[in-house]
Amino acid sequence: MAVSLAQTTLFSKTSYFLRGNALKCFTFSVPFSSSSASVLRTGKKARQPIVSVLELGGVKIAKDDVVRDDPTNNVPDTIFSKLGMQLHRRNQHPIGILKNAIYEYFDTNYSNKFDKFDDLCPIVSVQQNFDDVLVPADHVSRSYNDTYYIDPQIVLRCHTSAHQAELLRRGHTHFLVTGDVYRRDSIDSTHYPVFHQMEGVRVFSPDEWEASGMDATSYAAEDLKKCLEGLARHLFGAVEMRWIDTYFPFTNPSYELEIYFKEKWLEVLGCGVTEQDILRKNGKLNNVAWAFGLGLERLAMVLFDIPDIRLFWSSDERFTSQFSKGQLGVKFKPFSKYPPCYKDMSFWINESFTENNLCEIVRGVAGDLVEEVVLIDNFTNKKGMTSHCYRIAYRSMERSLTDEEINDLQWNVREQVQSKLKVVLR
Asked: Among 49, 51, 277, 370, which one is least packed by beta carbons within 10 Å?
């Protein structure tokens, strides 16, 4: 059950690209069009599958199968461009270094019991992403405002729990799933529409807890806390910790682990004892299990002193050359601090306006040149009309922006906000 540190969590079902025992996207030696692929079964009429090509360690997916001119599709070009980049599989990248450090902990302390998956396809069904992990039908995370929908039944996974049910059905009892996940979100230094999660699951059989004299739930909860306290010490050293009771729809009881680090409490992960309904539906009738999830970016920002989440996507050698395989916690040295440029935009909103939709438009125009979008003022007039004023900060992490390009970006943003969101600029 993947609980992101940077964003709230969700869960899902498996990739519909399953064939035989391969729990991953189709891979081929050369690209080919979707018309030449075998049909995809969705429970309704068969249609062509999305084609992916494993290339340079990453998955490429045919654009016209993901970004469609369809009112039910809300995947922009900027998100498609991130598919298959798989930062978590790069051993010299902070995300990959952190993933491998967590692997090391589990391999050392559990004698290589945990199966590892880090190349599962991020395109999953609604059933996988929500229903299989008991996300309620009316949960806000299911909305088009929060999730990227390819069509009404297919989404970009919001969390690595998208694969939990299938892995349980396939008989895995100890596993770690790492992957890129996608959520429509705000724009600031800690939020990005693509980030990376790791989920861990351990299933127990009756003979394991019966010998302890404890009930199954208490036994699993105690083992879970012991495991994750050890992981926190492995990553952060001898730190003070505390457990916070919380709620997730897929675990009961549920907890968050916080550590006292650099003179403040930091949420490290979410976890809990897996709901029995999930186990029963996936062939584990007499078992109990625990699950945890963490956001790799949030931890990596703390461990490596990385100030802006956009930096993880930088190909600038001044960033990439600072990190080496196996070197956890090397402190990032800023190579420059270019000045931001602020532009304000005011408009009368309508009933359908959401801030996430605004941020999608700004990201679509400016990409990683936008640093922050903040609501700085709002009011409602005597006629009942509401005005919002947003301040947009443009800043490159690699160079100084010119007045001309910033003005062009802002003009484009204004035009698209007005035409796509149907608001009235002031």
From this structure: 277
pLDDT tens readout for residues 27-40: 332 222 232 232 23
Quote the tokens at residue 163.
């694969």
Contact 135, 275 (CB under 8 A): no
Alpha carbons 74 and 152: distance in angstroms, whole number? 10
Give the three-state DSSP class for 232. helix
Amino acid at site 124: V
Could you write out the DSSP letters of every residue in 262-309? TTEEEEEEEEEEEPHHHHHHTT-TT-EEEEEEEEHHHHHHHHHT---G
Q: Omega of the bond prior to 206 within 30 degrees of 0, cis?
A: no
- Provide CB contacts within 8 A for 409, sequence distance 6+: 365, 366, 369, 394
For residue range 261-272, list pLDDT tens digits in order: 888 899 999 999
* Residue pointed to by tokens 């897929």: 250
**Gap between the terminal Cα atoms of the chain:** 44
* This prediction's pTM: 0.85
